[in-house]
Amino acid sequence: MKGWIMIHKIKALYDGGKGMSIRGIARELGISRNTVRKYLRMDETEITKQLDNTERKKVLDDYEEYIVHLLEEYPGLSAVKALRKLCDKVGELDVSERSMRRYLKALKERVRCKRRRYYEPVLDMVPGVQCQVDLGEMGGIKIGGEECKVYFVVFVLSYSRMMYVSVSPRPIDTEAFIRIHDEAFRYFGGCPEECVYDQTRLVVIREEFRELELNNRFYQYATMAGFRIRACEGYAPESKGKVEAGVKYVKNNALYGESFSDWSALESYMREWLEKTANVRIHGTTRRKPIEQYEEEERMHMRRYFTPECVDKSDVLIQRKADKTGLISWEGNKYSVPMAYQGASVGVEEIGTSLVIHDLYTGKKIAEHKLHHGKGQIIKNRHHYRDVSKRIEELEEQIGERLGKELGARICKLLRITSPNIYKDQLFGLIKVLSDYEEIDLDVMEKLSEGARLTVTRIRDYLEASAISKEMGESSSFDGATEALAKYAVIGGSHAIH
Predict the structure, then answer these.
(1) Among 165, 158, 160, which residue's Cα sits nearest to residue 195?
(2) What is the pLDDT of residues 167-199, one digit of tens each?
(3) Is the pTM of this model over 0.70?
(4) Which residue segment(s) compose the domain that 406 sits in?
């Protein structure tokens, strides 16, 4: 009887096309637009036949897409196991094993149940299964009085519509993409069974004959983190429509018309926007607040998440950039860092009642302050205000110890000439690159020191090419490294997946 009442309401509100729109009816009755369309297309005979079906059959119909998903992953799944996995996700159901067996048999006659490369079902009826992920960018955002482009990644849990957004001042590479996933799963307090992406090169390197070559570095992270990678078919954004809408929502609701004093202010604003706007609004489809639905129905179904060992310590820490006075912003206050880090990015974490600040490259603690819960305070350590040049000298000495004093001095001089404004960052980066090798190819470093310009990325690529050349039994000289750069596509190519 309840079904007849709902159908009667739908048809009355639609009034043969003279009344409310399908969208309006769905919003009014709190049901999906697809349900409205289905009943408007059916005549009285069809409606009667459907409503005469057993209650058990209707219960399973509500979870059809998830059952199809299970059969695609595990074609030989028994009815007993399928029912148990479904109940693990949604709670106890008044469905017998016999009913499930009959349902699976009928379903297999209608659906080709084999695993497909392309993603099709949108699993929004079962909690903890799916998260949709997409990248976006938006120009013209004023930061510090200048118009900048902001890059961001949006995560939307398909069931609760709980969101997470991370912003970046530069295009997002593989390592940043991994770090952002780590941030998102720690924000959610768990990991879904699968994440859905379009064919970004951060996930899919190449597709040929409907076969995917995945980004090895990201695939390694996903495997260790415990979630499956799903890639949409090219040019099929509707396969992840929730996050496509989320990208538009970030642009139009969060960023458009806003300006920020500095990058830290933008990051603080985005965190506050998630907590006070995005995740507490009444969602247009679910008619519930995402945070409430997540806490009440989805959190317990998320997989436990621990940051994998393949994620560097520097990737786990929240980043802040020190201003020209050696201060970073944190929760409405400013804290000092050693002046050697003036203008540089550092890693920040709260431990108990303390704010602990780390060197991003070494992970070493460089400062610790007692947390202040007021607003607008400046907390300084007077020992932080010493000569920046002393820190630079220390970094140059470390490089000299690895390369030899004379060669190290020439490399440092060339880095300073090439990038005077980020010289200290280049020194930090070079130390990190050199730390990856027990033995450094000094022939390659000698040749690089003879050039007119030099950057840390160039050093990294040549050392990597030299190592590849050596592994292949070829020359590990500078000429061998140069050949390897072209032969193995280290620059601008497959090195992104290592």
Answers:
(1) 158
(2) 998 889 888 899 899 989 988 989 999 998 887
(3) no
(4) 388-497
